[in-house]
Amino acid sequence: MIKKIGFVLLLAIAAGVILYNWNEYREKSIADVLPLHAGELTWMGFSKNRPTQDDKLYEWGTKDKEPMEELLAFLRQYRVKRKHLGYEALSQEVTALRNSKSAFEFELARDKAERVLIYANNNTVYVLTDRLYEIKNGPINGDWIDAFNEKYRKIYGNS
Question: CA 53, 121, 90, 96: dihedral to nearest 10 degrees?
């Protein structure tokens, strides 16, 4: 009897591990990998070209919902698949991503304690939870990102 329970328990654990890995590494929408959603956000910071001033983390930031919703609606069209990398390879990929000409980054916040930082370029998205995703139906439209940044930088750039 104990052997049967142990065998069933072992099968359940194996099935759980298989389902977890299948879900983590399957293709999904960018919206599915971001832990926060537009309706619950309270702040966003954005940079296309990282600021040269040491006192500014982002080119612009806002508490207004419109830019947050616009960016997330745009990104929802892209599908991603998690890359399986060791720590050193992940670190190298993130450094290359952040230094690429098409790089942009943004931070989303629900409150002061709950924030998520995203680095992206035309082909890769890094969610600051040590998860790197490859864009499967990209590349991300860089012209749209440039126009989005310019539009809102003019409005919020000095805030």
Answer: -60
